[in-house]
Amino acid sequence: MKRICLIILAVVSFSLSLSATNPSENNSNKTFLNIDWAGGQAIVDSDLILYVNGECIGTYSYLDGFRVKCPLSKEVMEVKIILKLGPVKRKSECKFFVNKQNNYTLMIMSNNPYNILDLFGFNLVNNDTNEMVKLKNL
To answer: Which member of 11, 23, 46, 58 has the greatest number of CB atoms within 10 A?
Structure first.
């Protein structure tokens, strides 16, 4: 039994090392969308659920903020934030075009920092040219 476990462990270890050194998986050739939320002020914390192109990326703290790095997979990117505070949900989303050869940062801002249930705003910056990119709010 020990010999079987060691063989399985060796095979898994070998396959992991192959995937880690695969040049096609090298991140230096990929471009990314960084999504930033600096965090907010509130008496109670709430959840922020982040979706990119329809895929749930994760759930984050409203108070703590987050920075998420997503590979640019499409020329049209859709980002949706759902703020969940108990049974109450608020959704903000935007859609924008990107040049897949550039890196971008999407900054999420509260339109009203004193109202946790207010909708969010978005600013998109092309990291390679430092230019603001126009967004289409949904």
So the answer is: 46
47-70 CB burial, b ≥16 within 10 A, e <16: ebbbbbeeeebeebebeeebebeb
pLDDT tens-place string over residues 26-70: 455 689 999 999 988 888 889 999 999 999 999 999 999 999 999
Q: What are phi and psi of 104, to 5 degrees?
A: -135, 155
Q: How far is CA 97 from CA 54, 94, 126, 128, in A?
A: 16, 10, 11, 15
Q: What is the pTM of this model?
A: 0.73
Q: Quick: pLDDT tens for 99-136.
A: 889 999 999 988 776 677 777 888 999 998 888 876 65
Please work out, in degrees rounded to the nearest 5, the angle formed at the alpha carbon of residue 100 by the alpha carbons of 109 and 122.
10
Cβ pair 45, 68 in contact under 8 A? no
Q: Tell me the sheet residues that pair with 50.
A: 58, 81
User: In terms of Cα–Cα distance, which of 96, 83, 103, 94 is closest to 121?
Assistant: 94
Tokens describing residue 84: 């969940």
